[in-house]
Amino acid sequence: MSFLSKIFRSSSFSPSAPSLRESYDQRGQTYRTSCPSNYSGQQQQQSYYGQGTSGGGGYSYGYSGFPPGTSPDIIRSFEMVDRDRSGFIDENELQQALSSGYQRFQIRTVRLLMFLFRNPHDPQRIGPKEFAALWTCLGQWRGIYERYDKDKSGKIDLFELRDALYSIGLATPSSVLQVLISKYDDGSGRKIELDFDSFVECGVILKGLTEKFKEKDERYTGTVSFNYDEFMSMAIPFLVSYD
């Protein structure tokens, strides 16, 4: 049985607290993407993710397609890996961009992000607009990760993960969390903890699947009807990207 199949068996995806409407849409926020907060399409001025990239000047910032006000750090990161100057980057180049300056991202996380921020005209690559949106989204996840890493260990455990997800309106059942975090059990018997890369995986999967469910649950009943095609269209992209 696949990992995500276990999640589906563990939960009906009907958040339990404090209410369905608040769980889907806590504190007045609406979640239309797999980012912690709704992405408006406008890139803010500062560079949010990690520590930016190393290196000095020499960059032309000549790419078109970045939203107005995009940080030079974000543009530099894109330029550094787009060596053929095509204006697009593939999954390997994205992995390199995200891994520079902070930590290495696993390719499965990169592929999941590629799917979520895919270019509608070229699903195998992303351009400046998608890259800027992805970078901002990771910055939002990073802020939550640091906030709930209470002991500042650089990793978060099951309870910190639960609180972090709850803070963005995902009242995730304990059975789902147990299955989710078991993915990272190395068999050593040590307490399972997640680094930022793994936290992003967990967050975007739960957020993305909840969003798909929410699209059908317009009255916040906690129960929806899917036909087979709809269910497979919802689940398969996450299975392919993640398992």
UniProtKB/TrEMBL annotation:
Keywords: Calcium. Residues 1-52 are annotated as: Disordered. It holds the Pfam family EF-hand_6. Signal peptide: none annotated. GO terms for molecular function: calcium ion binding. Residues 69-104, 136-171 form the EF-hand domain. It comes from the Eukaryota. This is EF-hand domain-containing protein.
